[in-house]
């Protein structure tokens, strides 16, 4: 399985306290939000990133270029945009646009598949992502180079989050604030994707590590105020309409 997708799966299944006799110190710290660094070719080392997305642009991913990428990125899982009918050797995932060809996506289960979507898409199309053979989605038009997070943009992301149940990644600007990272985390983001230098990536990694547990939405308690059926079976008893009194008829 893709290391990046495995990261998403472990995080989504985390949060419940460990039962048994294991001490708290024995439990490994749980990372919360995936930090995906974006780089070009040649790739730059990203030691604090959980994964690296390589955007080749006009450059060709030759065998020599791929070898250099793997050498510079070390053990960090990395992927490429566009992909192909065969994932580049050593890559962990591919990012594909919605306009890409389905046949051009690797068919093996070891390569993670992330699809780029726009928040402006029809709700039905966004829901359809849940039925596609992809592992996660990137909300491509969310926050990248858009300045500070506004309530409107947060509402848009939350709307997409309600429609797509797969892990969601949000592209963000390098100067995103800690407060905005926390807001995205609480809104349900599973990862942020950013083009930044090593120093800024380290600062973002520290911000993510300091995130508190995700604030869960409050449950709607209005159902508790509804009247309950008195019958133990909950069945509704039909009442026959009363016959009109003959004395009330007009003579």
Give me some keywords for this one.
24% helix, TIM Barrel, 6 helices, 15% strand, single chain, 251 residues, 8-stranded parallel barrel, alpha/beta
Topology:
Elements: H1 3-12, E1 34-39, E2 51-54, H2 63-73, E3 78-81, E4 93-97, E5 112-117, H3 123-128, E6 136-139, H4 151-163, E7 168-171, H5 178-186, E8 191-194, H6 198-209
Structure report:
It is a single chain. With 251 residues, the chain is an alpha/beta fold. It has a single domain, classed as TIM Barrel. Helices cover 24% and strands 15% of the residues. It contains six helices and eight strands, in the order H-E-E-H-E-E-E-H-E-H-E-H-E-H. The chain has helices at 3-12, 63-73, 123-128, 151-163, 178-186, 198-209, and strands at residues 34-39, 51-54, 78-81, 93-97, 112-117, 136-139, 168-171, 191-194. Strand 7, helix 5 (178-186) and strand 8 (191-194) form a beta-alpha-beta unit. The chain is globular. It starts with a helix and ends in a 42-residue tail after the last helix. 32% of the residues are buried. The model is unreliable at 14-29 and 221-233 (pLDDT under 50).
Class from helix and strand fractions? alpha/beta
Round the mean pLDDT to the nearest integer and report it. 79
Write down the Rg: 25 Å
Note the overall shape: globular
End-to-end Cα distance, whole Å, is: 87 Å
Give the count of structural domains: 1
**H/E element sequence:** HEEHEEEHEHEHEH
Strand content: 5-15%
Question: Per CATH, which architecture?
Answer: Alpha-Beta Barrel
Indicate the percent of residues in helices. Answer: 10-25%
């Amino acid at each position: 399985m893709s290391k990046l997708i495995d990261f998403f799966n472990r995080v989504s299944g985390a949060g419940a306290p460990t039962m048994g006799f294991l001490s708290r110190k024995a439990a490994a710290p749980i990372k919360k939000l995936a930090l995906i660094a974006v780089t070009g070719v040649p790739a730059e080392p990203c030691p604090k990133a959980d994964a690296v997305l390589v955007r080749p642009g006009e450059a060709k991913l030759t065998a020599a270029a791929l070898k250099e990428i793997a050498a510079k990125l070390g053990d960090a899982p990395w992927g490429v945009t566009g992909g192909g009918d065969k994932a580049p050797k050593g890559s962990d995932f591919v990012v594909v646009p919605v306009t890409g060809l389905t046949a051009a996506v690797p068919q093996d289960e070891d390569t993670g598949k992330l699809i780029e979507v726009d928040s402006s898409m029809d709700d039905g199309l966004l829901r359809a992502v849940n039925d596609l053979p992809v592992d996660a989605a990137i909300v491509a038009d969310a926050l990248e180079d858009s300045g500070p997070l506004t309530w409107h943009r947060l509402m848009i992301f939350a709307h997409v989050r309600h429609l797509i149940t797969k892990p969601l990644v949000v592209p963000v600007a390098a100067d995103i604030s800690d407060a905005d990272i926390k807001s995205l985390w609480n809104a349900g983001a599973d990862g942020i994707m950013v083009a930044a230098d090593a120093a800024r990536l380290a600062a973002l990694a520290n911000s993510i590590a300091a995130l508190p547990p995700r604030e869960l939405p409050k449950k709607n308690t209005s159902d508790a105020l509804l009247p309950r059926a008195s019958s133990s079976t909950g069945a509704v008893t039909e009442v026959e309409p009363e016959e009109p009194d003959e004395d009330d008829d007009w003579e």
